[in-house]
Amino acid sequence: MSSTASTSNTFLYPWSRKPFLELTTNSIPHSLLLFGQKDIGELHFGLELANYLLCESIDNKPCGQCEACHWVRQGNHPDLFTVVPQVLKRLLPFEVEDDQVGEDGEDKKQSKFIRIEQIRNIISSNELGSYRGGKRVVLIYPVEAMQAEAANCLLKTLEEPSNQLHFILLTNQLEKILPTIRSRCHLFPIPRPSLELSVAWLQTQLPNEYSDQVFEQKLLLHAGAPLKVIASLHEKALDDSIISKQLSQFKNLHSGEIIDLLSQYALLDILNSILKWSFDLNLVLFGQKPRYFPQLEARMQTACLNLNKISFQQFLSSLNDDIRLANHPLFPKVQLDAVLMRYKQLF
């Protein structure tokens, strides 16, 4: 389960309070599409908004004291429908009913997608009306995980929304959302927290364990996402510095040391780490500062002196293709070795 928000009285993380207040100052649209970077608390933002809509207090919503608020925080409010893929249910701050079997009888426990039966279930449930006689809220995260049939099924309901029904859709990849869904929703961005706020919060979560400098370096590696930093420190996550140490050897890198990481980490994690390094190298190639590995800028600048820009763009394109195929690789060692061979040949 992800780290909980900063207090027991709210789902929100400290950096989300200002945008949340901005959103709730006015009336909430019935179809809302929240978008922002992954691992900055976007799911908790959506849950807090759902709690706000369902809270039965007149003032200070969500109050955290009424019966509706207690039900939301326990994950059993009858008018809150939370739709996530099976593999992401661990991110919810409460337990939810585990619908493991689809209409075809197939085990869906580890599904990475939101399936049409999940959307059909919430639509049919909402046809019965509100249990509490008030608002009903459907929260879907992430929207891009919906299979095509599920998205089309949802679209029909978005076209004719009920007066008391609110849809809260969340995405980390706005560009992947169907234009027909985007056009029917009010878009609201969830901003990434500042470096100062992120470091201060990380110090409250791991007091006296790491210096501010370590947190800043980790935030650079993880695109400023504090929840990703926490996960990388708590779990046995791949350390990007292991990859960068080898890739910074350029044509002299030892491919075997990276390939051996497949015994501990997924191919996708390794390729994403290679992508971060390549992204920085591309920035330096075009005269900009690196984002993830600023401490290795000098080595990058030296390597870029003789690096062909067109060839490197082709490498980046092929690397993105490999990442798209990495969820179900037939021969991960062969695929990774091919990526590293193409990389070495650039120098």
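Second entry:
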Amino acid sequence: MIDRLLQKKDKLAVIGLGYVGLPIALEFAKKISVIGFDINSQRIQLMKKGVDPSNELSKEHFDNVDIQFTDNPDHLKDVRFFIVAVPTPIDEFKQPDLGPLLSATQTVANVLKKDDYVIFESTVYPGCTEEDCVPILERISGFSFIKDFKVGYSPERINPGDQTHTLHNVIKVVSGCDEESLNLIASLYELVVDAGVHKAASIKVAEAAKIIENTQRDVNIALMNELSIIFDKMQINTFDVLDAASTKWNFLKFYPGLVGGHCIGVDPYYLTHKAAQLGYHSKVITSGRDINDSMGTHIARQIVKKIIAKGKNIREARVLIMGATFKENVTDIRNSKVSDLVNEFKSFAVSVDVTDPLANSEEVLHEYGFPILSTFKGPYDAIIVAVSHQEYASLNEYYFNTLLHPGGILADIKGIFRKKFTSLDYWSL
């Protein structure tokens, strides 16, 4: 079957062309014939023009590729390999929202043929592929799992904004529903992953591996955030402590901060959800989530206290927040915890301005209810550098002094200006 793909007698489709799906589709399209499918027609039109709606890939990535972008499910009828790479977010109650995944599975099921392969890349809890997705494929297509069609799972490892760890040079975990499918899926990904593949023992193992990659980071960052709260009460800078502790060979250097995004701030909830279904209520993971989800509120309240301590009427205070994306040097605003900062300040009737050189103001306004200012004017009582964009790194002490009231506060969440300024009232985690 791989030979038929290489000879372009068969086609592969990628369902969902976001941060994960589009890079995968374009890489495969350098070797084989690909259908790139997404339900968002506006995104499809941009991609047809060689534009990545997520602003991660340059126009050159669209050169010399055999790919058809479409939002028409009928174009999927001749496809033999399907890769599903749609988002798996959480809802307002922090429960897994499988809506996009199940909808994409239905789309595939409607065009599924005998001997087709379906590979899921969306982050899910262990068991989801076989317990939630496969029954949809069977029911709608009328085919039998394993006998008539094969399924696999290969967790995505795309890191927005990271030009170092790419699809080419990061080992790809693959799994299949049987030995034949495992080997074929491994051979498929070896076409585009130079680092090679790791064959997981089962689909559930591959699903679990993805979940714990981000859960481990979440718990470790939560520890750093809790330590930062403790050290702040001791008037110790957490980053100074980490510099000292990291001189030991086996110290794991994680940093405190706002934990948002589509992975670390979401994936652990999929694991705790499944654990609860099995009658186990996670303690460490949920505690870590509680700490990380509360950091926006904690930071805002610390700044409010400092403003009040300077004798300022908090209802007359003005604050500037620099950065609105979920992390540095990306345009991605999904699950940005900067919104928690804004909401907490507003609960104290503080006037808040938000700026960001990368975030789209319309998207932020639609998602979080506040605009991104391209121009802003002081004086402010506090400036919070919430996201350490590269554009901010070159800012000097004079710049902040021109925007702050005399005695105003600079809150540097990620510590990028630590030990650089002397005349400012400086605070970091």
